[in-house]
Amino acid sequence: MTDLELDERARIWVESQTRSSIAAVTEMGGGITNTKWKVRLSRGDPVVIRWSDPAVWAEKGRDHVQREAAACRLLATSDVLLPRLIATDGYGDVAGAPANLMTWQPGSPRLDPLGTTAVHELARLAVAIHRHPVPVQDRAPTFSYRCPASPEVPDWARRPALWRRAIDIWKAGAPPTPYGLLHRDFHLGNILWDGDQVTGVVDWAEMSWGPADLDVAHICADFAMLHTLADADAFRTSYQALGGVLDRDLDGNRFWIVSDILGFLPDPAHILPGLAGARPDVRPDDVRFGLEELLERTLS
Questions:
Q1: Is the separation of the CB atoms in 122 and 290 below 8 Å?
Q2: pLDDT tens digits, 80-113
Q3: Residue 120: which residues within 8 A CB-CB, separation 6 or more?
Q4: CA–CA separation, 68 and 101 (whole Å)
């Protein structure tokens, strides 16, 4: 994407906040929202702008921007590495749309298999997020479920009975699991690395208040779809060994994993466009049946 395709009001806002002219703007791929650009300035380090076109994103875009800004403020002095908030226009009064301007975070995502050291570092990051103290007045909105209002057994399922059982578990309702801070989109594409060291976690647009089980379930689904169940197990084991707390009740923990898995319906293959550059080898059936294997493990 060229710099001409970023709204002119957003360009003016960026220049006013950075006190520098813009040299180039590049769309940041890898996701499904297409609301972020990397901005190279005529002087100083590059920055990132999230700009949520109201014609496309409406109230949801404003919510994303405001949650992300809140996360940057809340975790600014924590051990969690995330972008620093430079400026925010939560209602789009100046930038032409709800927008955040943030520092550029070094590193790049890794979608290749992670070794023991990297899994340990990733688990340490998750524990740091979930342990972070949050004053009552600063709590994020309670999480939302992602599964369809009336989930159905997917037509690609090899084990339909598993999916029927999962749907019944979800419909029975949530257990009384303690809540805390969640990233809520904790997957491999949002983690930045330099070798085996995490350099940052990005895309806090869905920061929520809810059970840590949801973040853990989400990245374990990533491991199951892109790598193996053993990788998912390794992360979960490392997370708990480092002090991460999940629902100790087997049925309660199962509910959260199931709710995350159902959130990929009707077809987890919708994640493939975001993977195309780094993992062109991943096919629709790889993610579908990796997810189904995770469901089978969860319900056994």
A1: no
A2: 999 999 999 999 999 999 999 999 999 999 999 9
A3: 238, 242
A4: 10
Burial pattern 104-141, b for ≥16 Cβ within 10 A else e, equals: ebebebbbeebeeebbbbbbbbbbbbbbeeeeeeeebe
| Beta strands 36-41 and 22-27, pairing class | antiparallel
Phi, psi of 14 (to 5 degrees): -60, -45
Torsions phi, psi of 9, nearest 5? -65, -35
Q: What is the pTM of this model?
A: 0.94
